[in-house]
Amino acid sequence: MKIITTLSALLGISLLTTTLAPVANAKPRKVNGIAAIANGRVVTINEVAFMLAPIRARLAIKHPRMGATFNAELAKSKKKILDELIDRQLIIHEFNELGAQIPDHAIKADIKRQIDRTYNGNEKKFREQLSKSNLSYTKYVQLTKDKLIGQAMRAQHFNDPTPATQSELMAEYNKHKRDMRDRSKDQINFEKIYIPVTNDDDLLATPETQKEFAEDLVKQIKKGANFAALAKEHSTDAFADQGGKQTNVKRSDLRPDVSFALFTEPVGTVIGPIQLDANGYQIIRVTRKIDGPYPGLSKVKKDMEQAVQNRKSSVRFNRYLDRLRKKALIKYK
Length: 333
Fold this sequence. Notes:
The protein is α+β, with helices and mostly antiparallel strands.
């Protein structure tokens, strides 16, 4: 039987790269249900929710009030995830007709990459997120297999016959090398202000007024106020005397949702106020990111060759997906 090996996770659909716990105040959802049906193949609500979780967590940190902007960005991301899951189901039918397979070791290797990338190698955290999303490990294995099928089909039928040049390889490598780094060795410098939910100097203070005060500090900082001075005056954590500065903090020492947000947003972005515990609100500004080591080009040359081929074939591949969609029976629930 024909065996199609896996491609690098970097080169395929990237929606499984980050999977964090949903925010505590997320709205209740169904235990499970049907999100869409494509040619009789079901995409479930839990599958979409699981893949949306890291985006929801990052947006909740970026937009603490979860207002209109939060909802709009979340809805856009949800639609994109659902459409990509539907596309996978359309491709799988043709893959099965080839009598091809994705080997088990390729699936296991890809899952390990996702755990290393998202949870700093902590499989327990990964399993906890599966449980929170009402998604079994067996189902996640199937989702990973579906993703690899999409990558394999693209490589099998849409590779450009022209070999990648050295300049193309270097350009692709420089574009993707941060995604391929050893994230477990990432470090970060940031400034932080911690505002407690209570204020002993103001008996009328409530958690809501304290949050409003923190939001006002964010506005001041964005207008150019001195972060360190505000931290020394108002912050109550152990780093207040240093102006809230923390240096060379390991990525593995941060909560997954926080590390994801801090390493995703550009240096200088003010994040918060976010409530990471019951006692207070945090305002964070990243001042420097220190990446873990990048792999040498020689180690990832095959992946970069495939990335160049994917880019060259993207127009043809998208036309192929359009044809599949036009002849498919797709029903959104």
